[in-house]
């Protein structure tokens, strides 16, 4: 609880969350939301008059040093097992497993912005950080309002060039993924990672629909819309500074194999991730910074 700003607006509360982990909760007439300081992980956003937009598994583990299944995990400085040997475990890097510092919180007419920060000094001594020993400052801004906006800025504070992968691994709540479509990726090239060690390179034809396990890394800089026909709503995802969109649903067998994912929960979610991964990893010269943003809107 000490890694947090103390001068908070009335709409922002620092509390003890699940598993005793510190959580920042936001409540205004416009929206409610929450961010766990571990991983700077958004775990809820509900705009006024809407059902929850962000999904978290009922089997998620809230414990020090463990990934929270759901919300918006920050994958950094690598994605999956990483592009080089020896990076994983942990999968998806160390940023989602460590405590970030809340350095600012503002309320602008019900739109609350939280600013969180992580540096190489915060992860010094961690075995995972030893695999990627580069000076950096990561700043994450989350705005809860009628839209949800997230922005991850990474600055290379060292004296040598650095390369990293990043993803905002967003779990969106849907009523039934089998009646859900991701619109906006028609014609985009993608890697189908369900093919195992040798992912297939393919091209999207039409909307992305779901009839089995889906794990695809698209080359796409554009926006998408997650159309949830059964719920009668759509969630738009608009992004900047991102070359990839990742779409994932574990389906039956993979869900059953994950201890922190309920066996019958897979129809309730779809991951649509804003990312720079694989061949689109970010390269920064000393002193350079890069920002990747995503905005989520709900329409009916």
Brief descriptors of the model:
300 residues; mainly beta; Beta-galactosidase, Chain A, domain 5; 9-stranded antiparallel sheet; 8-stranded antiparallel sheet; 2 helices; 4% helix; 44% strand; globular
Describe the structure.
By secondary structure, the chain is mainly beta. It has one domain (12-299): Beta-galactosidase, Chain A, domain 5 (Distorted Sandwich). Helices cover 4% and strands 44% of the residues. Strands 6-7-8-9-23-19-18-13-16 form a 9-stranded antiparallel beta sheet, with no helix packed on it. Strands 5, 11, 12, 14, 15, 17, 20 and 21 form an 8-stranded antiparallel beta sheet that branches. The longest helix has 7 residues, at 251-257. The termini are far apart.
Return the average pLDDT rounded to an integer.
Answer: 96
If classified by CATH, what would the architecture be?
Distorted Sandwich
Distance between the termini: 39 Å
Write down the secondary-structure element order: EEEEEEEHEEEEEEEEEEEEEHEEE
CATH uppermost class: Mainly Beta
Largest sheet: number of strands, sense, barrel closure: 9 strands, antiparallel
Computed Rg? 18 Å
Strand content: 35-45%
Per DSSP E runs of 2 or more residues, the count of β-strands stands at 23
Q: Detail the poorly predicted runs.
A: none
Q: So how many helices?
A: 2
Biggest sheet, spatial arrangement of strands: 6-7-8-9-23-19-18-13-16
How many domain modules? 1
CATH fold call? Beta-galactosidase, Chain A, domain 5
Fraction of residues in helix: under 10%
* Spatial shape: globular
Class based on secondary structure composition and strand pairing: mainly beta
